[in-house]
Amino acid sequence: MNTVISFIIIFGALVFFHELGHFIFAKRAGILVREFAIGFGPKIFSYKKGETIYTIRLLPIGGFVRMAGEDPDIPEIKPGHRIAIQFDHGEKVNKIILTGKNRFPNVKVIEVEKADLEHRLIIQGYEEGEEDLLQTFNVSREAIVVEDQVETQIAPWDRQFASKKLSARAMTIFAGPLFNFILAIVAFTLIGIIQGVPLEEAKLGNVLSDGAAQESGLQQGDLVLSIDGSEVNTFTDMTKIVRAHPEEELVFTVERDGKTLDIPVTPKRFVEDDKEIGLIGVQSYLDKSFSKVALSGFIETYHWTIKIFQLLGQLVVGKFSIDMLSGPVGIYKSTEEVAKAGILYLMKWTGLLSINLGIMNLLPIPALDGGRLLFFGVEAVRGKPIDRHKEGLVHFIGFALLMVLMIVVTWNDIQRFFIN
């Protein structure tokens, strides 16, 4: 149950922050956001506030922000259609009823001659009983279209995604991955605030009560200068030497309170991955100073971003097998292991997954944010957008291929964790 809860919280945070980036910058650009969704598939929860519906959907494989104009979202009103209209106090049409007209009081039923709900915001037609008089009705910018009891707000052209400047559209799409990096920075910074930031130098932090370090007289705050005459510059240098010499006496030269001391230490033997290693029972020194903590989130995010790009490079050149990729099942199992180590490790895991999600979405693959940004780049070069239908077809094919990859990766995860 703890794993399930952890997975739901982590997954929800990753998707929420990603879609929040899209949402905030869409609203800043004046785009009508129809839906903010976590998950795909059937709705299991929905709540409408203002002009946006907030939903949680059944399948935990992502999320989306549905912006006006990206898909056909208003039923087309053609000449000859018989519709009912209601008016606001300013005598503008604020409700357009396509079906179920008898359920609404105080409506006018008209036969449509022409309707423009994007630019001119008018409906022209003949009122029932006055078929010889063509009338023009002005439509409110917030008018609602009702079909089969489903209400949809119209989107004037200036509220649609495609109407905005290229820079605003690009920033709206880029903001999703950007917010994933921000989430990682926040997670790593919180870890720094709670536990402190490990120093690179070989300064001893917590000395465990049952370790060789305490038995030998090493103390928290000791700065290791050398081991058996070999210079030590970082905590990693010290760890490598200790791990390579189980049950062998090593002379630690340390600086303590301005004095230099030589302390013999014999690392205890442990077995790790069928290999004997030495451990002395110390942790790196954790610095909680403001300057270190304030920068820790940015430094860690940068460090892991570079690491992930290096792994992607290995995947491209064939040094990293696709069988090593993980999908939702693999992430769930990894979360199960991380959860056993405690909340700080879960926070770090969240940061790593968030960076992964941000990077993957920036790859120039159709259907991902990076693919859309690539089309914007082509638009900037050409001076005009690519045909929306052609772009939509490319994204559809890309999405289908991604679903195939997801199935393959998920099957590999199932085999790895439940069959083999």
UniProtKB/TrEMBL annotation:
Broad EC category: hydrolase
Membrane topology field: Multi-pass membrane protein
Lineage, broadest ranks: Bacteria, Bacillati, Bacillota, Bacilli, Bacillales
Keywords: Hydrolase, Membrane, Metal-binding, Metalloprotease, Protease, Transmembrane, Transmembrane helix, Zinc
EC number of the protein: 3.4.24.-
Record bears the keyword Ribonucleoprotein: no
Annotated TM spans: 6-25, 173-194, 392-411
Subcellular location, principal: membrane
CDD domains: cpPDZ_EcRseP-like (cd23081), S2P-M50_PDZ_RseP-like (cd06163)
Protein name: Zinc metalloprotease
Gene3D superfamilies hit by this protein: 2.30.42.10
Cited NCBIfam families: RIP metalloprotease RseP (TIGR00054)
Family as reported in the entry's similarity comment: Belongs to the peptidase M50B family.
Annotated organism of origin: Lederbergia wuyishanensis
Cited Pfam families: PDZ_6, Peptidase_M50
A Gene Ontology biological process term: proteolysis
Keyword Chloroplast (UniProt): no
Domain (PDZ) ranges: 196-269
Essential cofactor(s): Zn(2+)
Location in or out of the cell: Membrane
